[in-house]
Design a protein that fits this description.
By secondary structure, the protein is of the alpha+beta class. The chain has one domain: 3-Layer(aba) Sandwich (Aminopeptidase). It contains 6 helices and 8 strands, in the order ββαααβββαβαββα. Strands 1-2-3-4-5-6-8-7 form an 8-stranded mixed sheet, sandwiched between helices. Helix 1 packs across helix 3. The two termini are about 25 Å apart. InterPro entries: Acyl_CoA_acyltransferase (IPR016181), GNAT_dom (IPR000182), N-acetyltransferase (IPR051531).
């Protein structure tokens, strides 16, 4: 696995301590964290979690998370994060979060596609899934556009931010990834 990963507009790379200001901006936005499993974080809390992210730079064993900064190549600005978890034997899970000012511009699709490519083409995963809260319509639409199929709707499956929430499970198999689209 070679990092960073370059796409047309993005650089997906391990976090750096210098990412703190950019991360604090989007992690502190209630609209951005509305559907992700972490709370609104101030600068100090963001700095604390950044210390963990600095160690999440490889996938060599089940249960590990690769968490990469999503940087716009033309500006050097970190606009979000993308992740790939090695969930089980040849299985992964993909996720993403982007700052509000950078949503709706195709960046999440570009970053998530790169992570699917990493999982299937470089790491040899057989299956990659993604889970989102049902109310997160934009993410569900994006996962479908990426070619992932909705496999489940888990009603009131998780106690999420003070209330029960329904989760949608999406997935793609290796042969579906390789099939012409």
């Amino acid at each position: 696995m070679r990092l960073p990963i370059e796409t047309d507009r993005l650089l997906l790379r391990p976090h750096r301590t210098s990412d703190l200001d950019d991360l604090a901006q989007f992690r502190g936005d209630p609209e951005v964290v509305r559907y992700v499993p972490w709370p609104v974080r101030d600068r100090a809390a963001t700095e604390e979690t950044l210390q963990v992210k600095l160690t999440q730079t490889e996938l060599v064993a089940h249960g590990q998370w690769l968490v990469l900064a999503v940087e716009v190549r033309s500006t050097g600005t970190v606009i979000g994060e993308v992740l790939l978890k090695w969930a089980a034997d040849r299985q992964g899970e993909v996720g993403f979060a982007l700052g509000r000012d950078h949503q709706g511009q195709g960046y999440a699709a570009e970053a998530a596609t790169a992570m699917l490519r990493l999982g299937f083409d470089e790491l040899g995963f057989h299956r990659i899934s993604a889970v989102c809260i049902e109310e997160n319509v934009a993410s569900a639409r994006l996962l479908a556009r990426l070619g992932m199929r909705q496999e489940a709707r888990l009603v009131d499956n998780v106690f999420f931010k003070g209330a029960w929430a329904t989760q949608l499970v999406f997935a793609m198999l290796e042969d579906e990834w390789r099939a012409p689209r």
